[in-house]
Amino acid sequence: MELHALTLLQARKLLEQGDITALQLTEALLERIDAVEDRVKAYLHLDRDGALARAAEADSERREGRAGALCGLPLSIKDVLCTEGLPTTCGSRMLENFIPPYDATVIRRLKEEGAVLLGKVAMDEFAMGSTSENCAFKVPENPWKPGYVAGGSSGGSAASVAAGECLASLGSDTGGSIRQPASLCSVVGMKPTYGRVSRFGLVAFASSLDQVGPLARDVADCALLMNVISGYDPRDSTSVNRPVPDYTASLKDGLGGIRIGVPVEYFGAGLDPEVEKTVRAGIDMLREAGAEIVEVSLPHTQYCVAVYYLIAPAEASSNLARFDGVRYGYRNMEADSLIDMYCRSRSEGFGDEVKRRILIGTYALSAGYYDAYYKKASQVRTLIMEDYQKVFSSCDLVVSPVTPTPAWKIGYKSDDPLAHYLSDILTISANLAGVPGISVPAGFSSDGLPIGIQMQAAHFNEEVLLRAAWNLEQRAGVREKKPQL
Amino acid sequence: MNITKQEVEKVARLARLELSDAEMERVTRQLDSILGYVAKLDELDTGSVVPTTHTQQLVNAFRDDEIKPSLPREKALANAPRDNGESFVVPRIIS
């Protein structure tokens, strides 16, 4: 039995039956990391001792009848979430030595349920990117084809799950950063409704768009993690106070009575034929599961990238103003004045993509340009939300590709930021509208690269989203396939 | 040209970023390309559209006004590049 290849639910069952211990499971994961990490490059910080100690505690808790929902299950965490006593770098030199004095709310919830945190995984610096190539420390590689990108910005999370270096992970999604790497690495990745999961302790990139979510081996594990991390948090002023359903309860129900829209705009020029073929086959599977499929339109889709690349940098320029070298983070020690220290610390601490986005955002918010750029983008955002409201008045879900192409070689597109930005074209709108979205593995290209299917739902309709994803997963038949490392 | 080198210099100053000459050339070219792309938003008439800044209708997010423990000083200073045991230490700006 390969313990590193288990799902959360499979591992939990073995733990409950006493067939394995959390310590054995954690040791198996650490051995797997030792065996494959040189090819995957997912972990920025591996907390070997802490994980083993926590696993031993989990075994005690289970013996004493105090086992939580995730008791003894080893996870990796995107390095954008604050973890008390463990480095949180956001993939940036700016925070290279930062050790948070507190846990993010989602981390506290994982710990309360007994999870074992193996460590922190690689990401694009401050979650800015589509490939994780903007990480200041290492670039995770796609476990299905080393040398190819794992996706971004939660590339380390997706790669670590796909490679068997953890059982599941948490990532964050600002413009597709969970769904896109999940698709490129053949794992399940979910962006919850904005406000469903606390953002307290998530280092902010674009506050109106960021959302924490799970990356897992299958949909049932994704639902389990959603049960743990969802819910109101008084520490987060954007958290929404409404009941959290049991996401695992209705997974196996069929799709009878569910109406799924296929937006015509998502199948246009630039879509790889193999991606289109796989997604169309997936849509047929959803029909076989009982869903009614209809064609719909999201007419402002073509403006999503432009809106995103004004709003996200504008919010980033404001959020990242706190990194000035004063209270924490990198400081240039040779500056001879305060302003000089700010400038040199920020210029040396931030990488190129972060600086580029700060400049775009500062420009879009500056006097004389605010109306033409930021306000205009915020108005078009309203139109995009109205598109969704219209579609979801007659449909339960929208189904589409996640990315226009499968994964590409590391280094390809690296000199053209706009080309990178366009790779998020199919995921961004969910963040602009605040709706939930999921990426489910659906097939492989002729080169053996994973292809996912994206589904989106109305606000707080994650239950239906997960049920449709589960039904698709059963029919797609790719869940058991594992990368050869 | 949507953006000039002089405008990038001004924005960099506002953002407290220093760019080398080579960076300035490259960034100006890249920002020009990006701003050229986002100009497609001008195709839309948004005169009567209300801007969206938040996707949820949250009216009052205040917590109860209760005294709670602060972060202990030593924890607050633990990540400071320099401190004197009580405060963050930064270069002086008044000579």
Automatic annotation (TrEMBL), chain A:
<dbReference type="Pfam" id="PF01425">
    <property type="entry name" value="Amidase"/>
</dbReference>
<dbReference type="GO" id="GO:0030956">
    <property type="term" value="C:glutamyl-tRNA(Gln) amidotransferase complex"/>
</dbReference>
<dbReference type="GO" id="GO:0005524">
    <property type="term" value="F:ATP binding"/>
</dbReference>
<keyword id="KW-0547">Nucleotide-binding</keyword>
<dbReference type="InterPro" id="IPR023631">
    <property type="entry name" value="Amidase_dom"/>
</dbReference>
<protein>
    <recommendedName>
        <fullName>Glutamyl-tRNA(Gln) amidotransferase subunit A</fullName>
        <ecNumber>6.3.5.7</ecNumber>
    </recommendedName>
</protein>
<dbReference type="GO" id="GO:0006412">
    <property type="term" value="P:translation"/>
</dbReference>
<dbReference type="InterPro" id="IPR004412">
    <property type="entry name" value="GatA"/>
</dbReference>
<comment type="function">
    <text>Allows the formation of correctly charged Gln-tRNA(Gln) through the transamidation of misacylated Glu-tRNA(Gln) in organisms which lack glutaminyl-tRNA synthetase. The reaction takes place in the presence of glutamine and ATP through an activated gamma-phospho-Glu-tRNA(Gln).</text>
</comment>
<dbReference type="GO" id="GO:0050567">
    <property type="term" value="F:glutaminyl-tRNA synthase (glutamine-hydrolyzing) activity"/>
</dbReference>
<keyword id="KW-0648">Protein biosynthesis</keyword>
<keyword id="KW-0067">ATP-binding</keyword>
<keyword id="KW-0436">Ligase</keyword>
<feature type="active site" description="Charge relay system">
    <location>
        <position position="153"/>
    </location>
</feature>
<feature type="active site" description="Charge relay system">
    <location>
        <position position="78"/>
    </location>
</feature>
<feature type="active site" description="Acyl-ester intermediate">
    <location>
        <position position="177"/>
    </location>
</feature>
<feature type="domain" description="Amidase">
    <location>
        <begin position="25"/>
        <end position="466"/>
    </location>
</feature>
<comment type="subunit">
    <text>Heterotrimer of A, B and C subunits.</text>
</comment>
<dbReference type="InterPro" id="IPR000120">
    <property type="entry name" value="Amidase"/>
</dbReference>
<comment type="similarity">
    <text>Belongs to the amidase family. GatA subfamily.</text>
</comment>
<dbReference type="InterPro" id="IPR036928">
    <property type="entry name" value="AS_sf"/>
</dbReference>
<dbReference type="InterPro" id="IPR020556">
    <property type="entry name" value="Amidase_CS"/>
</dbReference>
